[in-house]
Amino acid sequence: MERSPASEPSSEAPQFRRLHPLTLLVRLLMSLPALIILLLPALRGQTIDQGTLVTLILYGLLAFPLILAHYLRFRYALTPRELLIESGVLTHRRRSIPIDRIQNIQIERTLLARLLGLARVRIETAGSAETEGEIAFVSLAEAQRLKEQVRAFRGSPVSEQAAQPARTLLFAMTPGQLLRSGAFRFSLVYLAGMFSGMEYLDLTPEDLIDWVVRGRLHWVQEAFEQAPLLATMATLLLAALLGWVAGIVVHVVRFYGFQLWQEGERFYRRSGLFTVAESALPRRRVQALVIRTNPLMQHFGWYALEAQLIGLDRETQGVQTLVPFGRLSEIQQIAAHVWPIALPTAWQRVSPRMIRRATVRYLLIGAGVLLGLGWIWPEVRWLLAGLPIGAPLLAWLQYRRHGYAVEASYLFVRQGVFRHRIWCLPYQKMQVFSLTRSLFQRRLGLASLQVDMAGAPAIGGPQIRDLPEKEAEKLLQFVYEQFQTHCRMQSPAS
Fold first, then answer.
1. Domain ranges for the chain
2. Which residue from 85, 144, 194, 332 has the least number of CB within 10 angstroms?
3. Which overall architecture, per CATH, does domain 256-338 show?
4. CA dist., res. 30 & res. 11, Å (int)
5. Which residues contact 8 (CB under 8 A, 6 or more apart)?
6. What DSSP assignment string belongs to 56-72?
7. Locate the YdbS-like PH domain: which residues (predicted)?
8. How far, in Å, CA of 99 to CA of 84, rounded?
9. Packing angle between helix 205-213 and helix 218-226, nearest 10 degrees?
10. Do residues 402 and 410 make contact, with C-beta atoms less than 8 angstroms apart?
11. Which residues pair with 94 in a beta bridge?
12. Cα-based distances in Å from 283 to 103, 289, 308, 310
């Protein structure tokens, strides 16, 4: 049994409830992909070996009994003081989550759950790195009841609850915006999954192409056989096209029906095509704002706004999207609902010696990657000829895109060549200040300043790279003094 020391026993006997009976059907259907993987040899016309046959028999004997046992052992109860969850087949577990520790009740609905009128309820607490409790599955009405009841228990007395904060819609994504935003995305995740599946099924790209064209384009195959470099370029273009299409699909699935609204000091968002998720984002948990774009999006005037929060689950690494795709004016208007910020008009540059250091780094990394791929794909070695031009150009672009700005209440940091990011960092939210000097930086008289915020990802956080050493030390001292000053006074971002 797990119980917080801060919680007190409830004077009322908890009224336990069970999951919805259709949970059995959902769990059984969710287990079918594992069964299909076991049956793949039979589906491909191969003989099932004895080991696979034994596994199938065990699956049939154990799958449904385990699902039924989990259903019978799972129950939950909500009292004015705590949410109780009992579960476990072999190991019985009783979780007690105090009401005053619950920060967010997230309702998720997969496509199958929506067809059956069910929902999954996730419970998040302050400072937790993962979901503290999960109730899957209950009816949508029951999920809404749990959410509203927790909000009522955490709120004020009944006389004060009548004046609920007004709901203000801040942003709603139209179908046109959704398709346009997907066109600016590029994803190799599903592309890699497709090729992994082909490898498992013992299919080659040639088999797939031959099945698609069905022998009508033999002249293309002959041209590729006579010109391997042409085949390499065509393969890269095809991979880029598939990655672009995959990016559109992933983006549409994730942000379909996206809405963001505000109620008092909380923001709420809802989105999803197959899995509809609704979550609450308390304003006081926002640690930093990030404006994202890329060269193509920026050329057409499109941006995205994200908030870095503390205490969210590790799946999102503390980053939540507030605006997936909008004009810069929209981004700044919505950001003003979090903090009263204005983007800087002038940026401080880092040392030009950054170009030299980045050029060497890109030359070494590029040569290593291309030589490694050359063992498998010899034609790739031709790209080595472009490194002496590409590496300095990329280093120069990194220098041009990198900079910082010091404002009254915030430190702004911008970085990224292909993924542009502007970080807005309130001084009083800062956690750790680090000044680092690598071996090569010391030889060039450079240093990097990194500011850690609560909930920041381990990689890709805000960092001001390759400052002159004296400038880096002065900036560190100034930022730390601002941190102390803002912690002693009430800041607009608090």
1. 17-154, 181-251, 256-338, 348-490
2. 194
3. Roll (2.30)
4. 39
5. 81
6. HHHHHHHHHHHHHHHHH
7. 71-149, 256-336, 399-477
8. 10
9. 150
10. no
11. 86
12. 11, 11, 11, 11
Using the predicted structure, report yes or no on whether residue 457 has a pLDDT greater than 60.
yes
Quick: pLDDT tens for 391-406.
Answer: 999 999 999 999 999 9
Q: What is the CATH number of domain 348-490?
A: 2.30.29
Residue range 218-275, pLDDT digits in tens: 666 666 566 666 666 776 677 777 778 877 888 888 899 999 999 888 899 999 888 8
Secondary structure element (H or E) that encloses residue 197, with its range: helix 189-200
pLDDT of 67-119, one tens digit each? 899 999 999 999 989 999 999 888 888 989 898 888 778 888 888 888 899 99
Domains 17-154 and 348-490 share a fold: yes
pLDDT tens digits, one per residue of 121-140: 988 876 555 677 899 899 99
Q: Which fold, 17-154?
A: PH-domain like (2.30.29)
Q: How far apart are the first and last CA of the chain?
A: 37
Q: How far apart are CA 221 and CA 190, in angstroms?
A: 26
